[in-house]
Amino acid sequence: MLKKLKGKLKGGDQASDQQQHSQQSFHPSNPYYTPPQPQQSINPEEKYQPPSGPPPGYGSSGSGYAPPPGPPPSHFPQQPPPSWSPPAYHDWTVIPDNSLLPPPPSIGYEESPTANATEEEGARANEWQRANPLWPPQNIAPQTYAAIQNSQLALLKPPNYTGDLMPQQQAGHWKCRTHASCRDSSLLTNLPIYSVFYDSPLNTHRSKTIYFELKVQSIGRGGDSLSEADAGIAVGFVAPPYPTFRLPGWQRGSLGIHGDDGRKYVNDTYGGVDFTTSFARNEVIGIGMTFAPPKQPPSYEQSQQGIILDIDVFFTRDGKKVGGWDGNEELDERSEGGTVGIRGECDLFPAIGVFGGVDFEVFFHPSQWLYHPSSAF
């Protein structure tokens, strides 16, 4: 059985695979959201001459400046030193208040019990990331943002996905069915659900919630054994570009909740952290994030870490909020880069991870949800 253990290996997979995935970039056949254009390189052969003459004011003697007369005043008053006294005694029996200290990072697992990815795929994903850095926010057109507000989001089929994607009559409603041979794949939308230029609380001065729901219809084509799962579904969000041959939460700039092992993954290429129970048939699950202006100004250390917004990640089952976590929580040291990309500084896309044979429906429009976040859209 394959493992979700993702070693931090040097080197990558075959060069042809790397070239193929680099060329596929973020979304195959996505005309609405394209990567930024590379900047023009400077010709090293060009020679630049400095302007003639000294800089303005250099060597000028007509400024009228003269030092004040007399010696400079003493910075230390001429007073006798105070008499010495012993330091105050520290009462070691007093217990310090650690309630204001941040919680320790979650202790993750080295591997998942459901086991469905190889170390080679993890190494290839790391190489893909190094070749494809995170994109800056895109300044999308107003009519495109209006389409996002109306939940006109289309699911795009990644190269590894084998199955059907069937749009329904109402905008934002999709039915999906995968084949039993479907390999790890992340379904992403053609447009972001969170736009930095339009939605960031730093620009709007109000909170923004993103959310979607998914109804599980079947998992697997013969059984749902957690110890030997042959199929699974994951829900989450990713910052572009993201390797679509990986489930959400496994790589940089992503988070996800996986229904095969019930664990949460935040830039976690290993075994995740205990969070919930596995997804069940006919269950409606939802995932959301709320970005809000900070209730307290971030400290210098937090600002250096990029923490500038309050972030709440939440999870729902059948219309009820059943869990969540602080989006700024400290991650295990194995998560290189931490939460970079999912702190509100990048555009974010809904992500649905699948492997094996599964059937489900996706709902992006609020009228289709069982749970209704107050500040969504």
Task: Tell me the layout of helices and strands.
Elements: H1 15-24, H2 119-131, H3 142-149, E1 155-156, E2 163-167, E3 173-178, E4 185-189, H4 196-199, H5 201-204, E5 208-219, E6 232-238, E7 254-258, E8 263-266, E9 273-274, E10 284-292, H6 300-304, E11 310-317, E12 320-326, E13 349-355, E14 358-363
Antiparallel strand pairs: 1-4, 2-3, 3-14, 4-13, 5-10, 5-14, 6-7, 6-13, 7-8, 8-9, 10-11, 11-12
Helix pairs in contact: 1-2
Rg computed from alpha carbons, rounded to a whole number of angstroms: 27 Å
- Fill in the CATH topology of the domain at 119-368: Jelly Rolls
Structural class: alpha+beta
The gross shape turns out to be globular
Helix content class: 10-25%
Strand tally: 14
Low-confidence stretches: 5-16, 18-23
Largest sheet, described in full? 7 strands, antiparallel
Q: Give, in spatial order, the strands making up the sheet with the most strands.
A: 1-4-13-6-7-8-9
Estimate what percentage of residues fall within beta strands.
Answer: 15-25%
* CATH class bucket of the domain at 119-368: Mainly Beta
Can you put this structure into words, describing what you see?
- Helix content is 12%, strand content 23%.
- With 377 residues, it is of the alpha+beta class.
- The protein has a domain at 119-368: SPRY domain (Jelly Rolls, Sandwich).
- The strands form two sheets. The chain has a seven-stranded antiparallel beta sheet, with no helix packed on it. Strands 2-3-14-5-10-11-12 form a seven-stranded antiparallel beta sheet, with no helix packed on it.
- A hairpin with a 4-residue loop joins strand 7 and strand 8.
- The longest helix is centred in the N-terminal third of the chain and has 13 residues, at 119-131.
- It is found in: Membrane.
- Residues 66-85 have a biased composition (Pro residues).
